[in-house]
Model the fold of this input.
Amino acid sequence: MSSESSASSLDPITRLLDITGERWSFLILRDLFYGVRRFDALQKHLGISKKVLSQRLNSLVEAEMLIRVPYQERPPRFEYQLTAKGRDFFPVLVAMQSWSNRWLFSEGEQGALLIHSDCGQPLDTKLICSHCEGSVTPARIRPGKREQ
Amino acid sequence: MDRETELLEHFRKDNERLRTALKINQLIAGELKLGPLLKQIMEITQSLMQAESCSLFLYDEKSGELVFHACSGDKEDQLREICRLPKGSGIAGWAAENLQTVRLTDVYADPRFNSEFDRETGFVTRNMICTPLIAHGKLIGISQVINHEDGDFTAADERLMESLVQMVAIAIDNARIHERLMQQQLLQHDLELAKSIQESFLPNEMPQIDGYQVAYHMNSAFEVGGDFYDTVQLQDGRTAYLIGDISGKGVSAAMIMSTVLSDLRMELTHGGTAASILNRFNISLCKKAKNGMFVSLILMILDAKSGELEIANAGHLPPVHILNQSIWQHDEASGPPAGIILDADYDFTRLVLEPGEMVLLYTDGITEARNSDHIMLGAGRLLAWLGECPETPEACMDFLTERIQAFIGQATQSDDITMLILGRS
Done:
């Protein structure tokens, strides 16, 4: 048992990992952003067992990242859709992908890219402060609490 | 006659009696069909005992009565009139109840004697020996010699009678064991015949269809229950899967299977929806069906390109859909088993088998199987197992057969167990 793995932890990263701290959850969320919604398609795309996929989907539904929506009555079949909370995870996945492309691929090797539809350029992320639009680096941040 | 001559005569008679007794023993040895032999033994015993008549009554365990079996002597026809002696009735009844020989020099002086038989038959009984036949401690019947030709029956006659009767009892017991064995062999032969007929009508292998797998399993009961399955490639490229259960058991059910499967195959060649094929088959079966014969079955037709299934059900257990995350049992059958109602109008369900899904067709031999505590397996238990079954039809079939076998344990399987699983990869 992880020392900080608890919903009562005040560390946001710990709370996040309680939900997504397992590789399949990130990959399921990635596929849902790509538009894959049905169980059999997710299973085929991820190459995962039914049992594990079912468990991870149930966890994400429980964490309110996804909802299970019926699309057929006979036989009853369902698809999975991102909730607002799930959709808000998008920047996290994009940042992960950018970092991976930058550091985990050797020269000449090309990872999957996301293209920004507006300008047609490969998507890369840059962290700026949404308040002052100034650059954000580890040296320019400090721990704090949200003002009440 | 001096003493020596008297002794010689006595030994000669004893020797003669012994020879005759041995003759009976020889007759019995090696003969397992005792019907005609018993009559012969009665005649020899009658002569040996110097009696007017010798008769044999066998004990009927169910009714407790002594039933006339064989008789010798001039009065045979009269004695034959006494077909059954009620339990405890007369001297014979007493000997049977008490497992003791009764020797009477004057039967009318004994209160146990029932003179009614004499009155009915016109026979006059003076004296008798009545001896129970006992084998392995159990009563087989009684034998009685009536009216000594030259005076009374002696104690020596009684001992001889007991010895003879003992041999006859063992012979009858052996013959009965032999008869039971023969009957068991005949039954076994019938069951093997039924099983081989059943197997001869089942497909050797299922057609291979890209993107789909099929697994099937049949475990015939000791007494074949009339289950069948089949698969037929239709002219329009679709594939038909069938599973069913014919009313009745054994050879008769297996024989009916030939008609049922040939009629079904014929109707399948004419094509149409699953419902129209089932309707045509029902009409042809109703016209042929005799003695209340009927068939419950499911006809499932797969269009492999689209994954579309048409399912028509005639009084059979509804199929179970093993969806990716749940188990879904189809509605009950839309009509009765085929062969009952001529104008039955069967409906059909159309649905798509998605990749990763499976559909299970099965017979009631599974849900009605009982374990040694007489607890029924039931549909609920089957559905619960399916909730945790492996992902491919073959693995799922192995999983189910293992679970079913573990549930039944040492209990006797009373009906055929048949399953067919179609899966889409």
